[in-house]
Recover the amino acids of this structure.
């Protein structure tokens, strides 16, 4: 597991039925591209988060494949239309197989 | 025909002048607290996108370091069995004002102390723990956390009394030409602020946002890292992190930006 990885998400706590809400995510990660050379002249091995998946009540609402050109500490925001109360589950998958997870509830009226 | 052609040309000319006004009005606009007299924060030289990134605490990646610093604040370390919170309170609120007034004169040391040096002084003498390395994740997190407590406060460093000789040294450093390119800090940040240095806009080089999240660095960095980068770019040998030269320079640079708000963690490109 890469060092100091800390996921953060921001979703509204409340929304009205059918509302389109913005979801923001940020995760601290070095996102080493695998193209840089260290002081010894050797390539620094690639180490990035390669996937972000977001589900709402178990159903996928958003996913993205991340590639080496994504910056360190990636920020991603997107919009979702909500029809019912429930829970968003965020899952980032690291190159080394570790998974970082975060959950967030929303009440829809 | 000729009239038509003329009209078209006139329209084009109007369009150009309108866009030209659009460009200049950016400088003429009201920067609020980010501009005091003729002193402009680096914030005013950034793009709208970078400014929005800084303003939103969630989007601001520097806040990751502030959060980590908050965790370290309450972590017990060293032989004395203390954490920062043991003396300074759980929340770090007592650190309010530190970023605005440091570097400050220290009686025991007989010289100026930066926030980093004060943190390590506490670690060694109060906590009996190992000092942090200057540009380590831990130090950057801690300084981000401490300086963040002063967010929005106007910078106001004491440059009189005991601090006066150190201030004078910092000022001399600032105006002294150095390196193979024979350039002083002032050649860029006073004479050419607002101009371009290759593809980058030169700011006035104010120190109110450090530790700053620099998009190029992809992390936060101390003001001494910035000094070293500048010194290398004029092909001179940089001084060490925490050297007397840089602490004095830090004092002078902070004074240059007096009245500007503390922006830690600022976002710059």
């Amino acid at each position: 597991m890469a060092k100091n990885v800390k996921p953060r998400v921001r979703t509204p706590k409340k929304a009205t039925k059918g509302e389109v809400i913005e979801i923001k995510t940020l995760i601290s990660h070095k996102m080493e591209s695998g193209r840089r050379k260290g002081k010894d002249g050797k390539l620094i091995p690639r180490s990035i988060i390669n996937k972000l998946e977001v589900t709402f009540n178990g159903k996928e609402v958003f996913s993205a494949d991340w590639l080496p050109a994504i910056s360190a500490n990636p920020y991603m925001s997107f919009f979702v239309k909500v029809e019912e109360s429930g829970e968003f589950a965020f899952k980032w998958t690291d190159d080394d197989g570790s998974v970082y997870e975060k959950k967030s509830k929303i009440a829809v009226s | 025909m000729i009239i038509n052609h003329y009209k078209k040309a006139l329209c084009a000319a109007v369009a150009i002048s309108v866009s030209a006004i659009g460009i200049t009005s950016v400088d003429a606009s009201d920067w609020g607290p980010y501009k005091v007299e003729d002193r402009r924060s680096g914030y005013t030289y950034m793009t709208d996108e970078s400014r929005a990134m800084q303003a939103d605490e969630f989007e601001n990646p520097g806040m990751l370091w502030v959060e980590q610093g908050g965790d370290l604040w309450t972590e017990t370390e060293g032989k004395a069995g203390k954490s920062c919170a043991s003396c300074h309170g759980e929340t770090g609120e007592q650190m309010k004002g530190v970023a605005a007034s440091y570097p400050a004169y220290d009686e025991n040391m007989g010289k100026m102390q930066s926030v980093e040096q004060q943190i390590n002084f506490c670690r060694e003498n109060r906590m009996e723990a190992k000092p942090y390395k200057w540009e380590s994740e831990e130090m950057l997190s801690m300084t981000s956390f401490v300086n963040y407590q002063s967010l929005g406060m106007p910078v106001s460093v004491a440059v009189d009394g005991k601090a006066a000789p150190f201030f004078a040294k910092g000022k001399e450093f600032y105006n002294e030409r150095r390196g193979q390119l024979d350039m002083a800090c002032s050649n860029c940040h006073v004479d050419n602020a607002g101009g371009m240095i290759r593809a980058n806009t030169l700011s006035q080089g104010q120190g109110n946002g450090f530790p700053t999240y620099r998009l190029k660095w992809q992390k936060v960095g101390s003001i001494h890292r910035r000094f070293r980068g500048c010194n290398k770019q004029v092909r001179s040998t940089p001084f060490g992190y925490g050297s007397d030269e840089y602490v004095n320079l830090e004092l002078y640079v902070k004074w240059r930006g007096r009245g500007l708000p503390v922006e830690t963690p600022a976002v710059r490109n």
Remarks:
- Chain B is about 45% helix and 10% strand.
- Chain B has two domains: 32-56+153-268, 63-148.
- The first helix of chain B runs from residue 2 to 28.
- The longest strand of chain B covers residues 104-106.
